[in-house]
């Protein structure tokens, strides 16, 4: 997996189960890193069921897709969609009218090797499932982020994915727990972060609280990290910083804690950007 | 006050979080080893039969899945009769 001519890192975001927040994670971590000044490419490998363009708000600017790049119909550079809000961010769209078997892990590897030469981070949005799309997505990855929710079926699928990554000799595997509701954990009705750590036994990269602002931001096609007042935004920004090697403490999830109330008050007094 | 404390404990004991954890422990152990509850019963039965051929077993023999990190192991406890 080492390539001596490049230093970009390929990060696959995967989960097994659908709907846990893979695309949201890719959109927000990539935007957050681009805002810090890094050069970031995002690659949608959910061929046939693309979403990333819509979540990033770039759906109207897509001309070519990854299958056309692989089949030689266009160059990689032509297919990359630049995000006007963040000059460092580019997206390689998925094809909507093709399917996962139209590309191979080797071909994805070639595309990633090219992207690594120009970008600091290359994110791969992996499709749900453990079939061809998953195999294509993990082929070139240096690091894997497994997204899960505190819910039994998502945890079971995450465990299966971690097992598959381990059998494929991946060492750099991290857990991101999305849609955490602290009040439900407290009332004994949701798996806690400690519970998930006990079951899955991998490094915890981040915790993202349930946040209605996420839906609002996807409606608009704006990543949540642009909304400074949301808790999910802070969580994603912290995770992005951890990816750069910074040691950032985990968010205090207790919304009713004194400090959070004070912080909320402070935020509501400040004008919105 | 006493009923309040009772309720707190009752909730903890039967909480859905606890149930989720218990169910996950079992299902993940089986998923990882590629086994099922039915296969475990068969294994347990056969292990006990093999031991019983040679030594007398007393009490409740147990064969369970235990987890060590991301790996599963078989925990076998078979009490045998002393002389």
Total DSSP helices of chain B: 3
Query: At the third CATH level, what is the topology name of chain A?
Result: Rossmann fold
State the separation between the terminal residues of chain B, measured CA to CA.
Answer: 54 Å
Order of helices and strands of chain A, N to C?
EHEHHHEEHEHEHEHHEHHH
Tell me the strand percentage band of chain B. Answer: 15-25%
State the shape of chain B. Answer: elongated
Low-confidence stretches of chain A: 1-5
- Rg of chain A over CA atoms, rounded to whole Å, is 18 Å
The CATH homologous superfamily of chain A = P-loop containing nucleotide triphosphate hydrolases
Helix residue percentage of chain A? 40-55%
CATH architecture of chain A: 3-Layer(aba) Sandwich
The termini of chain A sit apart by 42 Å
Spatial strand sequence of the major β-sheet of chain A? 3-4-2-5-1-6-7-8
Class computed from helices, strands and strand pairing of chain B: alpha+beta
What's the number of helices of chain A?
Answer: 12
Count of discrete domains of chain B: 1
Pfam families (chain B): MinE (PF03776)
Family (chain B): Belongs to the MinE family.
GO biological process, one term (chain B): regulation of division septum assembly
Protein name (chain B): Septum site-determining protein
Outline of the structure:
The complex is a heterodimer of chains A (273) and B (83). Chain A is α/β, with parallel strands linked by helices and 273 residues long.
What can you tell me about this protein's structure?
The complex is a heterodimer of chains A (273) and B (83). By secondary structure, chain A is α/β, with parallel strands linked by helices. Chain A has one domain (9-269): Rossmann fold (3-Layer(aba) Sandwich), CATH 3.40.50.300. In chain A, 41% of the residues lie in helices and 16% in strands. Chain A is built from 12 helices and 8 strands. Chain A has helices spanning 22-35, 52-56, 66-70, 76-79, 105-118, 132-138, 152-167, 182-186, 193-200, 212-220, 231-243, 258-269; strands at residues 9-14, 40-44, 81-82, 89-92, 121-125, 143-148, 173-180, 203-209. Chain A has an 8-stranded mixed beta sheet with strand order 3-4-2-5-1-6-7-8, sandwiched between helices. Chain A is globular. In chain A, 47% of the residues are buried. Chain B is an alpha+beta fold and 83 residues long. Chain B has one domain (2-77). In chain B, 59% of the residues lie in helices and 17% in strands. A two-stranded antiparallel ribbon of chain B has the order 1-2. In chain B, a hairpin with a 2-residue loop joins β1 (62-68) and β2 (71-77). Chain B starts with a helix and ends in a 6-residue tail after the last strand. The model of chain B has no long low-confidence stretch (mean pLDDT 83). At the A-B interface, α7 and α9 of A face α2 of B. Chain B: This is Septum site-determining protein. Chain B: Belongs to the MinE family.
């Amino acid at each position: 997996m080492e390539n001596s001519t490049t230093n970009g890192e390929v990060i696959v975001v995967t989960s097994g189960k659908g709907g846990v927040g893979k695309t949201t994670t890719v959109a927000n971590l990539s935007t957050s890193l681009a805002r810090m000044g890094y050069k970031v490419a995002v690659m949608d490998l959910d061929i046939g069921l693309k979403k990333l363009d819509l979540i990033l708000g770039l759906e109207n600017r897509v001309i070519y897709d990854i299958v056309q790049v692989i089949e030689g119909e266009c160059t990689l550079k032509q297919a990359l969609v630049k995000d006007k809000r963040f000059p460092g961010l580019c997206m390689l769209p998925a094809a909507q009218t093709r399917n996962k078997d139209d590309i191979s892990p080797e071909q994805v590897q070639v595309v990633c090797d090219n992207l690594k030469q120009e970008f600091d981070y290359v994110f791969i949005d992996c499709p749900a499932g453990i079939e061809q799309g998953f195999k294509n997505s993990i082929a070139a990855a240096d690091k894997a982020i497994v997204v899960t929710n505190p819910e039994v079926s998502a945890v079971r699928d995450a465990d299966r994915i971690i097992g598959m990554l381990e059998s494929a000799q991946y060492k750099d595997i991290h857990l991101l727990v999305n849609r955490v509701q602290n009040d439900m954990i407290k009332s004994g009705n949701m798996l806690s972060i400690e519970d998930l750590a006990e079951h899955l036994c991998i490094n915890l990269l981040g915790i993202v609280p349930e946040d209605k602002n996420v839906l609002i931001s996807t409606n608009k096609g704006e990543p949540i990290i642009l909304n400074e007042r949301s808790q999910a935004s802070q969580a994603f920004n912290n995770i992005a910083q951890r990816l750069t090697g910074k040691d950032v403490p985990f968010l205090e999830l207790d919304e009713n804690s004194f400090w959070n109330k004070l912080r909320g008050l402070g935020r509501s007094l400040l004008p919105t950007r | 006050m006493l009923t309040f404390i009772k309720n707190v404990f009752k909730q903890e004991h039967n909480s859905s979080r606890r149930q989720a954890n218990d169910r996950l422990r079992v299902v993940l152990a089986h998923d990882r080893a590629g086994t099922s509850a039915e296969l475990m019963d068969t294994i347990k039965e056969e292990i006990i039969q093999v031991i019983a051929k040679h030594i007398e077993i007393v009490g409740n023999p147990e064969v369970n899945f235990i987890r060590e990190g991301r790996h599963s192991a078989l925990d076998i406890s078979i009490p045998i009769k002393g002389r």
